[in-house]
Amino acid sequence: MTKPKSNLDHMDPLIEGYLSYLDKVGRKTPRTIIDVRCTLRRAIVGIGGDVPLWHLELTDYLHWLEAERQRGSTETTLAKYLSHVRGLLEYAWRSGRCDRNVLDGFNLAHTTPRTPPRSLTLEEAERLIEATGIEGPTAHRDRLIILLLYGCGLRTDELCSLDVAHVNRERRELLVLKAKGDRPRAVPIPTGVYTELLAYLLDHGKRGPLFRTVIRKSRLCAKDICAIVRDAALRAGLPDDITPRTLRHSFATHLMDRGVDLAIIASLMGHRSPQETGVYLHVLPGRTTAAVRKLKVGGGV
Predict the structure, then answer these.
(1) How far is residue 297 from each of residues 122, 145, 157, measured CA to CA in Å?
(2) Is the pLDDT of residue 301 over 60?
């Protein structure tokens, strides 16, 4: 039986025109347009009534945002909602459908402090890498997974999606094609990691998934990667809350420690802007640059 379409699947012609504008003129990615559509649907349902969004008052939006906050939406999510709706209202104003954009110049004040993401110290990172120096049928694979998560700052899904063909040997880079937000990027591979990656490729074919299961030879999934990181952390005597994301955060934090420009870190991590990377600024106060050593990844144990 075909599921009936919601009356929100196709919204007001002005909204559909705005989404088309984002696609054709704004050159936004398909995922971004879907995200904007979902936000506008959420606003229509959340505020209620038959009044178009561009005819509402600022107080209407304040009540809606507060309701979303009460439902558990984070400050970042609320700021995204505000940005999406503000863009629509600007489009409506320029199209002559309303006499002003009531959200123009309005921004949310971040009333709650941003909690720095969990990351390893350099000593903990070294212990984790040393803990991968074990024997077994998956030892080389598992060690390389840890090295790439920490040495390249990959997301778990990005690591799982890697194919052998995504290793650019000429430039010594990883081509991350299935990235968040449809923003592919090339990530340089640290020298020590690259050496181990080449040795791994000699024994694992020339095509297909870079990391496979032992029995079925199928692509590893996020659950597999999390288990590999957790097991290595336990062997290293680290807390059991260490995840692949912890290694990604450690990558950014340690680069920040070494004085790498925020824009470069944003590019390496696949962030849309340096502002998205600003959460790592917590590492700067009180840190002595002279005490920071180079990241020790790869090159044997």
Answers:
(1) 11, 12, 21
(2) no
CA–CA separation, 83 and 22 (whole Å): 13
Distances (CA, A) of 250 to 111, 118, 144: 26, 8, 16
Report yes or no: 78 and 64 within 8 Å, Cβ to Cβ: no
Cα torsion angle, 69, 14, 22, 157, sign: positive
Name beta bridge partners: 173. 168, 188
Question: Which tokens hold the place of 82?
Answer: 């505000």
Pure H helices in 156-294: 156-160, 191-202, 222-235, 244-257, 262-269, 274-277
d(CA 149, CA 152): 6
Residue 8 amino acid letter = L
Q: What is the pLDDT of residues 85-98, one digit of tens each?
A: 999 999 999 999 99
pLDDT in tens, 129-171: 999 988 888 999 999 999 999 999 999 999 999 999 999 999 9
Asked: is 13-94 a CATH 1.10.150 domain? The reply is yes
Domain boundaries, the chain: 13-94, 122-291
Residue for token digits 């123009």?
104
Token readout for 212 is 């496979």
CA distance 178 to 183: 8
The CATH class of 122-291 is mainly alpha
| pTM confidence score | 0.61
